[in-house]
Amino acid sequence: MREKESGMRVIAGSARRLLLSVPEGKDTRPTTDRIKETLFNILQFDLVDQDVLDLFAGSGALGIEALSRGAKRAVFCDSGKKALACIEQNIARCHFQEQALVYGGDFHSALRSLEGKDYHFGIVFLDPPYGEDLAKEALRRLAKSSMVGKDTVFVVETALEEDFSELEEEGYRILREKLYKTNKHIFLRLQEAV
Questions:
Q1: How far apart are CA 162 and CA 133, in angstroms?
Q2: Of 108, 48, 65, 58, nearest to 88 (Cα)?
Q3: What whole-number distance in Å separates Cα of residue 189 and Cα of residue 149?
Q4: What is the DSSP letter of 144?
Q5: Which of 30, 35, 36, 32 has the alpha carbon at shortest distance from 13?
Q6: Cβ atoms 101, 127 nearer than 8 A
Q7: In angstroms, rounded to a whole number, what is the distance separating the alpha carbons of residues 158 and 163?
Q8: pLDDT tens figures, 131-177
Q9: Eight-state DSSP code of residue 85
Q10: CATH 3.30.230.80 for the 3-190 domain, yes or no
């Protein structure tokens, strides 16, 4: 199993400029530095002292960036063995072992394992493979979880044509969409029960 240096780096904070590895192969689609910088400029005031959940974590770049910028703890979940090894390597490179927890397996089993532990996630990143409705499925599961609340910001990276408005019927409110050339970020929060 091999990881490759991606040229992808931590943009700001305590681990600034450290290069991150990405798993080789087509299973992981790293968020570019430019998009990551835009995303974290939007989130900058929501990160400090928060627990962060990085579902479908890939290389772990989003959770690591959050830790670098002041998040308290991050949980990384991915089902790929190459991705998990890469996440562990990147966490060690950035010296975040004390603040990070890595779960292998699908998101259902990871969320089941986390339920009842002392996490309340202020930020949840979801960057699954496009076109498989995994983000919507995960959001539906998270809406019933005690680990998130009305203060949680959910950030989904998805294809431009994906529509998440159906989730408004399930208690989510879309705060904004940030469009890029080939994909977009959708920012959501849970609403009060109607």
A1: 9
A2: 58
A3: 8
A4: T
A5: 36
A6: no
A7: 9
A8: 889 999 999 999 999 999 999 999 999 999 999 999 999 899 999 99
A9: H
A10: no
**Spatial separation of the C-alpha atoms in residues 172 and 93, rounded to whole Å:** 36
Question: Do the beta carbons of residue 62 and residue 32 sit within 8 Å?
Answer: no
Distance CA 60, CA 77 (A): 9
Q: H/E element holding 189?
A: strand 183-190
Output 87-94 pairs: Cβ under 8 A, ≥24 positions apart. Answer: 87/57, 87/58, 87/59, 87/60, 89/3, 89/21, 90/20, 90/21, 90/59, 90/60, 90/61, 90/64, 91/60, 91/64, 93/18, 93/19, 93/20, 93/21, 94/10, 94/15, 94/18, 94/64, 94/67, 94/68
Indicate the average pLDDT of the chain: 88
The DSSP symbol for 99 reads G
Dig out the tokens for 153 from the structure.
């910001």
- Spell out the domain ranges in the chain: 3-190
Q: Check residue 32 and report its DSSP letter.
A: P
Residue 173 and residue 152 in contact, taking contact as beta carbons nearer than 8 Å:
no
